[in-house]
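Hi P.,

Sorry for the delay on this. The queue was packed all week, but I finally got your sequence through. Input first:
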Amino acid sequence: MKRVAFVIQRYGLEVMGGSELHCRLVAERLAQRGYECTIFTTTARDYITWKNEYESGESILNQVVIKRYPVEKERNIDEFNKFSDWIFHHHHSKNDEEQWMEQQGPYSPDLIEALRENQADYDCFVFFTYLYFNTYWGLKAVTRPKALVPTAHDEPALYLEMMKEVFAAPQAFIFNTQAEKRMLTRLFNLEGKYQDVVGVGVDIAQTIPDQDALRTRYGLVRPYLLYAGRIEPGKGCQELMDYFQEYSRRRPGVDLVLIGKKLMDIPPHHQIKYLGFVSPEDKTALMKYALVTIHPSHFESLCMAALESLSLGTPILVQEQTEPLKDHCRLGQAGLYYSNQAEFFETLDLLLADERLRERLGLNGRAYVEKNYSWEIILEKYRRVFEYLGGVSQPVE
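Then the structure:
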């Protein structure tokens, strides 16, 4: 099973979303191992509007072939959110759900047709993310052996009736965490299908930029907490900044540093510092030298930023409601979790006051990543998935 096709809603160096980056890292690593990897995706770069920004057609990036197809309808996010609110809370038909999926997007019939027409050129297909148009209709179009990397968390869309079709179609499931597997096997009948908890590999940095130079470059005078990722309410960032502003009145000696794409207003507060996008080297250094990295999202299936932090020996503080993040803390003994403002204050006080605790959690976290998220382990698990799919009976042509 050497000819592997991946299906993902967006793809490219500029696309840093969790599932999209996850897909790219896996495809590139497999290509380095001799697999012939092809990406079926759209020309969209922005997941809010699905605006066509890449050129359609075929290209190659890091030994991976990319086939991009245009999006026919941009998304009006306000109208989509209104329709989502209605469909999640009212009785509706299958046609309503298919309309919701069309609005969800990215709406690219050409992509679906290309999957249907060209599938014989590939040994198997790997679909990333259960949520989008390309997965729902792509799984229907492809009759070759196929696996799904759901990247799912507990959200209203997961309970739509059409999702039973999504989770019935693949022969194999590649979960990010045990928490995700527990949730999905509770909601869907996956009996008789190949299942494994895989996730994504993490490169452990061997060299880190100098701390003094880093602090000078970004004007970091005080010790700091770090958030890395999309800065938006949906990632828990509004809650984080509200909590931190109140916390800073009690503990003025520590800053909150934010890096990543800004999709919301950041309050003008002298202890909240937004650095924008930084180089991968500086991101690594900022994680390494942070007292703690904070992961406030209520919805995650893995959280690569948390794993990157742990690989550097920096403990994590996470939202308790998010089971995969809570599992990283508990299974790795690598961080603490909170469910409300009072617990945020208490856990942060404990972490900041006890350097030995931070060091122990950091050492545990590094060992946890080495044991579960090295690329050797991840790629071997993908090999087993492909081996299984190789034995799946093929439809008669």
